[in-house]
Amino acid sequence: MPDTDTDLRAHHVGITVSDLEESLEFYRDVLGLSVLDRFTVSGDAFATGVGVDGATGTFAHLDADGARIELIEYDPDGPSCTAESVNQTGAKHVGFAVADLEAFHDDLPEAVETLSEPQTTASDTSILFLRDPEGNLIEVIEG
């Protein structure tokens, strides 16, 4: 299929957070992602586009080895979602890969919530699930 102006291509994974600074500290300082950009967007076009009257969004874009992670704090903020399990319909997670999962796990600050120790699955994939400060699921695989 030839490329056209309407072909989709990946751009970013967006995560809505209640405290941008706390989340940014986690993704930058704990996970080691580089900050690409920080900005704020407001106005009628933005509010209409996101479907939230009077919305302002404060953004941080981070680089995860070529994948863009977008953290966004909204004003006004909406109700919080409850922490989800990976097997719930509609559950989402962000996946990262590291060369040494055990070393990555050992280097995590004690305050970081993990679902378990690193595990090697029947498909011979080593995985670790953890939560960011907002309770969002993050999968880290060895590879």
Topology:
Elements: E1 13-17, H1 20-30, E2 34-41, H2 44-50, E3 56-64, E4 67-75, E5 93-98, H3 101-107, E6 119-120, E7 126-131, E8 137-142
Parallel strand pairs: 1-4, 5-8
Antiparallel strand pairs: 2-3, 3-4, 6-7, 7-8
Describe the structure.
This protein is α/β, with parallel strands linked by helices and 143 residues long. It has two domains: 63 residues, Roll (2,3-Dihydroxybiphenyl 1,2-Dioxygenase, domain 1), CATH 3.10.180.10; 50 residues, 2,3-Dihydroxybiphenyl 1,2-Dioxygenase, domain 1, CATH 3.10.180. The protein is built from three helices and eight strands, in the order βαβαβββαβββ. The strands form two sheets. Strands 1-4-3-2 form a four-stranded mixed sheet, covered by helices on one side. The chain has a four-stranded mixed sheet with strand order 5-8-7-6. A hairpin with a 2-residue loop joins β3 and β4. The chain is globular. The mean pLDDT is 90.
Task: Write a brief structural summary.
Helix content is 17%, strand content 36%. The chain has 143 residues and is α/β, with parallel strands linked by helices. The strands form two sheets. A four-stranded mixed sheet has the order 1-4-3-2, covered by helices on one side. A four-stranded mixed sheet has the order 5-8-7-6.
